[in-house]
Write a structure and sequence with these properties.
4 helices
């Protein structure tokens, strides 16, 4: 166990050294490649304008999202009506998706109660 711990320490040390050595270069390269997305004058007004643009662009995309949603609903209805033709892989993926959604719901409930199981704080 101690040798595994030392290996982990060595690997994390090597990773942090790599990050220190190459992090600034990567950061500068990333900013240079995406210069067109950086506001020249980062003022409050510019930020408000960009947030309004994002909001109205998302709002404008609602009709296409609505159509896509109903296509997905029709697809699921079709799969349910022809459930005898389902493959075991499709059933497994559906089960895992359902289990994940339920787990996130439970985790959200626990977090909402202050990370207690019963809701009572001691």
């Amino acid at each position: 166990m101690a040798s595994m711990w030392r290996q982990l320490q060595h690997k994390s040390s090597a990773a942090s050294q790599f990050l220190v050595k190459h992090g600034c270069v990567y950061y500068k390269q990333l900013l240079d490649q995406n210069q067109q997305y950086i506001a020249k004058e980062p003022t409050v007004e510019k930020c408000q304008e960009l947030s309004k643009q994002l909001f109205y662009n998302r709002l404008a995309s609602m009709p296409s999202r609505y159509k896509s949603f109903w296509k997905e609903v029709e697809f699921v209805k079709n799969k349910i009506s022809n459930r005898q033709d389902l493959k075991i892989e499709e059933v497994g993926v559906a089960f895992l998706f359902t289990a994940e959604c339920y787990a996130w719901f439970c985790a959200g409930e626990i977090a909402g109660r202050g990370f207690t199981i019963t809701g009572y704080k001691v």
